[in-house]
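Quick sanity check, Acetylornithine aminotransferase:
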Amino acid sequence: MIPPVLPTYNRAPLHFTHGEGSWLIEEDGRRFLDLGAGIAVNALGHAHPDLVAALTEQGSKLWHLSNLYEIPQQEELARRLVDATFADTAFFTNSGTEAMELAVKMARKYWYEKGQPDKVEIIAFDGAFHGRSSAAIAAVPTEKMAKGFGPLLPGFKQAKWGDWDALAEMVSDTTAAIIIEPVQGEGGIRPLPDADLKALRKLCDDKGCLLILDEVQCGVGRTGHLFAHEYAGITPDIMMVAKGIGGGFPLGAVLATEEAASGMVAGSHGSTYGGNPLGCAVGNAVLKKIADPAFLEEVRRKAGLFRQKLEGLVADNPEVFEEVRGLGLMLGLKCKIPCADVVKAGYAQELLTVPAADDVVRLLPPLTIADEEIAEAMDRLDRAAKAALSETKAG
Ligand SMILES: *Cc1c(COP(=O)(O)O)cnc(C)c1O
C-alpha cells in the first residue's frame, strides 16, 4: 500500500526534533553532528539566533504580500546581492529548480529580443545537477532523473565535463547559453579549475553565447568566497542561487547583468511566493552575516583546517578513502568502498554526511562550525570509516 507521503525518497530512520548550531537532536536524545546541513542549506547552522529573530519579527508583522505591491524586504535583499556581486538585478524564487527555469527562459528571451530567435540551445554537462523540473531534467537527462518522464523538453545538449575541445565544437549559431556549476555538488564535489572557468568565459564571449552559473549549492559563502566563481576572477551573465541563501527558509534567486536580463519585462515572468517578505527578511539576515569579508575569511581558515585533517583521515584509512576533493567547506571524500556504507556507518557514530555520485561522501557543514566540532567530526569519521570497512570485509 502506498504510504501517505509519496515514496520518492530513501529516508534514514532518524527523527530529529530540533537543532542547535552544528547539531541535530534525535527524539531519543542522541546528538548528531551535522556535516550535511540540509544539503548546504543551513549555512548558519540550526536555529541561528539572528535568523530566528528575523523570522519571528517579520512573522509577527506580515508573511506574504503579492508581487502586485512593492516589497521593501525584497528590494533590500536585491540591493544587497547587486552590491555584493556582478549582478545588476535579481529575481526571487523559492527553490533552485525554479531558478533554473528562469535562467533558461531569460537566456532564450535575450536572444529572441536581439532578433536571433534561433539561438535557443542550452549546453549542460554530464554529472551536473540543476534540479528536477522538466527543463532541469532535460538539461541533464540521466536515466535516474529522466527515464519515463518523456517527452523531454527540446533545446538542450550535453557536453562532457572536462573535454573543452569537444565543447568548443558543440557551440554553434543556435547556442543560447552554457550552464555549469563551478563546483559540481550531486556529481561528486568536482571543482572546475579556475583556468577552465576562465576558458569557458572566453569561449562564451568568442562564440556569442551566455554563461549561466549554477551556484545553488556552491554559492553563499560555501567555498570561502560569497560565490565560487570569484576564485577564477570571472563573472557570469546569469547566476542561479538557492539553498544557503535562505539558511533553511525556502528561497532562491536568479542574478543577472542588465544586458542578460534585458528581455525580461513586466509580465514576462512571475511567482506567487517568490520574494515574499518572510523569506526575504531571513535572506537579508543570512547575507548580513555571510557577505561580511571577516566571516568569509573565517570560512577559508576553517576550510583549511578541515581539509588538512581530512588529508590525515584519508592517509589513516587508505582502504576506505582515495582522496579529498572540494573547495572551502564544500568537501568530498572519494571512497574505495560504496560511499553509502560510510554514510550509514556515520549514523551509528551520530554523524551526518551526504552521499553523492562517483562514490563521494559529501561534507557540507554549517559555515559556522567550530574548530572543536571539526576535530570531533574527524574522530567520528574515522570510527565510521573503520566500521564501514569491517562491515564490507565481513559482508
Ligand atoms: C539542489 C540544487 C538544485 C535544485 O535546487 P532545489 O531547491 O532542490 O530545487 C539545482 N542546482 C544545484 C547545483 C543544486 O545543488
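Posting the structure with no commentary besides this: The domain at 50-290 is CATH 3.40.640.10 (Aspartate Aminotransferase; domain 2).
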